[in-house]
Amino acid sequence: MAHDGQTLPPDVYSSEPIPEAARAEIERLLTSGDLFRYTAAKDAPVALLEQEFADLLGARYALAVSSCSAALFLSLKALDLPRGARVLIPAFTFAAVPSSIVHADCVPVLVEVGLDYRVDLADFAAKLPGADAVMISHMRGHTSDMDAIMALCDAAGIPVIEDAAHSLGTTWNGRNIGTIGKVGCFSFQSYKLVNAGEGGILITDDPEIAARAVIMSGAYEENWKKHPGFQNSYCEWQNKLPLYNLRMQNLSAAVIRPQLPEVARRVQDGRRNHDYVAAALNATGVLSVPPALPPELRAPDSIQFNLTGDWTDAEARAFQTAAKSRGVSVQVFGLSEGNARAFWNWQFLGEAPDLPQTRAMLMRACDVRLPARLTQPELDFIAGALIDAAKAAHRA
Fold first, then answer.
1. Model confidence over 181-240: pLDDT tens digits?
2. CATH number for domain 21-261, candidates 3.40.50.150, 3.40.640.10, 3.40.50.140, 1.20.1250.20
3. Which of 175, 253, 313, 373 has its CA 20 to 30 A from that of 259?
4. Distance CA 147, CA 127 (A)
């Protein structure tokens, strides 16, 4: 799997083309000017997307919104948590996650994460008493032990929100990620499995959470009547909850809907590509991809691996530089300037907590884009470049 210097580096940032079926619908919407989700009496593109997404995941209710961050924020507000509520999150996540908690007038409590990028269950159990909610980020599609987490939270009566931004199509013991907790939140941002540039959606089986989220998303006056079910709940909450106006508009839904039938194929291709490159990296002895937990069937569109052994910071930085010179961009999470996934950069939370296990992991954990559309020669190029860069950067 040698790196071929004559081959152009693969483009890992472009998304798959939007299906042709979206074009006619977008043209219809542009011609009519019918872009607002509540203009039509029924069957607006956003409403159709919600039903299709709920059916795809096996959830009772779905609410499409402007981003996954908006979905996380609305989930917290819909749980009706008190001001200052403590919300446990993994210390390895994206800055938008603690930001959504701050925005909801709650307090993030960071939990240690191990070398496998998953929640450290001992630290989780120690910090759970006194928590009001848990927001589990399946960061980069790595699923923490949801059996253990749900057992602890259910015993304590603490609701769980799943941040499944990276996990559309992942299953845990055959259940779709996002349907295990009280609420599941997904992203349609450009680098996710389904691309609308921006956008998000939340799913739940709880009618009261769904009703409150619908009202607060911006279903003013009686627009809640264009959402299915639980009329009494809507009536109860109308005008009693603030409107945050986080709605999705019809053009976004028109882009997303034709991609939903592509999810299963993209998941299959992404898993194949990930496992192919992972096998090559694991054979080096200095690059290590943590295995999936036994109940987990992943849907990856990127690959994460650790620099194993006695790497210095200088060598890790040299590895980033050497990979870049070979045409492959690598982030070492803790060594990339201002990285939004390194908890010590979340200065809006105040002084960074002492989380030595997560800090050490982030200083040697690497991230590479690996879209499902890549071909085997492109995968060989990426794997070869990473392996060559490791050999060049790490002392024997």
1. 999 999 999 989 999 999 999 999 999 999 999 999 999 999 999 998 766 788 889 999
2. 3.40.640.10
3. 175
4. 18
For 250-268, the pLDDT digits (tens) are 999 999 999 999 999 999 9
Question: Has 192 been annotated as catalytic?
Answer: yes
Cα–Cα distance, 75 to 291 (Å, whole number) = 31
Distances in whole angstroms, Cα of residue 94 to Cα of each of 97, 255, 379, 381 = 6, 25, 26, 28
pTM: 0.95
Backbone phi and psi for residue 185, each to the nearest 5 degrees, phi listed first: -125, 135
Q: Which CATH number fits domain 262-393: 3.50.20.20, 3.90.1150.10, 3.10.310.70, 3.100.10.20?
A: 3.90.1150.10
Neighbours of 229 (CB within 10 A): 12
Write down the residue that tokens 């028109």 correspond to.
254
Q: Please pick, among 77, 182, 192, 226, the residue that the annotation labels catalytic.
A: 192
Query: pLDDT (tens digit, 9 = 90+) per residue, 30-75?
Result: 999 999 999 998 899 999 999 999 999 999 999 999 999 999 999 9
Whole-angstrom distance, CA of residue 237 vs CA of residue 222: 11
Mean pLDDT confidence for 301-321: 96
In sequence order, what are the beta bridge partners of 304? 367
Q: Cite the residue boundaries of each domain of the chain with CATH code 3.90.1150.10.
A: 262-393
Amino acid at 238: Q
Q: What is the pLDDT of residue 201?
A: 98
